[in-house]
Amino acid sequence: MATFRKLPSGKWQARVSKEGKEFSIGTFRTKKEAEIEAAKVEERIYYGQALNDRHMLFDQVTKDWLENKKENVKESTYVQLEVIVRNHITPYFENKKIMNIKRVEIKRWIASFGELDDKGKEKYSYGSRLKYLSVMKSILHHAVHELEVIEKNPADKLKVPVQDAVAIKKEKVKYFNLQELNQLLDFMKTYKHQRFPEYQLYYMLMYFLSKTGLRISEALALRWSDIDGDKITIDKQTSRDDNNKVKLTTLKNSSSYRTIKIDNDLLRELKKYKMKQNELILGNPRFRKNKDGIIFQNYNGHYLTPSIIRETIRGYCKKAGVDYKGTHGFRHTHAVLLLESGANLKYVSNRLGHKTIKTTADTYLDITEKIEEDELQKFASYTKR
């Protein structure tokens, strides 16, 4: 039978018995709250369920959450989560009891990242704050549903505040229009590398990315064995460890695993490129074969490094007289050209490996709206009386 007593502070303490020993389950604002909580604890005791420590520190909950994440997410994702926790969450909450963390504290915490600096800019971007709050919500969700040390998530339905004076601008999608793309590819087709002039690695890489929409990390992991006829299977990607050593990892999400078709023009270019690659491997001792049989290897037989690719393509764009759009620009280019040619959003979404069609629509919203407007104008012109 639970017992209750009013403390000098005005709060009520509740105590329950288990195996002949009485212990406190906490203090509450009213006797009614104490009675409700005591009833829940006694029910757990009756059914032999574990009693979790309601006085557990936030830091303990976070460590348990991270251990759980380590087993269920990619290594690179885990590293990102650990950094967010260590740098942006733990310093504020680590020594607090999980049951004492209030919603108002979380609101103050997330709002602090949006404060303006001396130049009138927010200290952290809106996107960063969204990530921090999402991680915090996940930790507290773990405390509620896995550890069962609190009854409800104090961060539930909490949103990132936006400064009235600061407009959140959607990041502009950078892509090559068809003229720019052809201008760049025409330049690359005739460009001769000093060491192996006939090995058109970067022409093939840029052409391939613009024709498939693959992420650069997906393309760099591709092997010749991943091509079967006119189909390419995407089931891995490259990443780099702390020593910049390449490793193959799982893809971003389940939707990223896909098989896509390629057109005859790309297939023909790939075959010519493969023949030249094999010719150099067999006929030139300075040109080494990659042990994994990857498509986009350098002459040393190594995987390409993203940072070197960025700088190299930036230089080629300058020589070709085309603005540099980043390596992701080729993925955006593929999507935009598909949409401009009349492909529907569902097809584009599946081809890019987006998790939902909403991701595709949100990314290319302005572009698709322009396409729809152009099509409507054609219809209006055609049916005008």
Structural class: mainly alpha
- The CATH C-level class name of the largest domain: Mainly Alpha
Major sheet: size, sense and barrel closure?
Answer: 3 strands, antiparallel
Helix share bin: 40-55%
Radius of gyration over C-alpha positions, nearest whole angstrom? 29 Å
At CATH level 3, the topology of the largest domain is hpI Integrase, Chain A
CATH-defined superfamily of the largest domain: Intergrase catalytic core
- Report the total helices: 14
Low-confidence stretches: 164-168
- Could you report the average pLDDT, rounded to the nearest whole number? 89
Proportion in β-strands: 5-15%
Sequence of strands across the biggest β-sheet: 1-2-3
* C-alpha end-to-end distance: 87 Å
How many domains? 2
Broad shape: elongated
CATH architecture of the largest domain: Orthogonal Bundle
> What is the ordering of alpha helices and beta strands?
EEEHHHHHHHHEEEEEHHHHHH
Q: Say how many strands there are.
A: 8
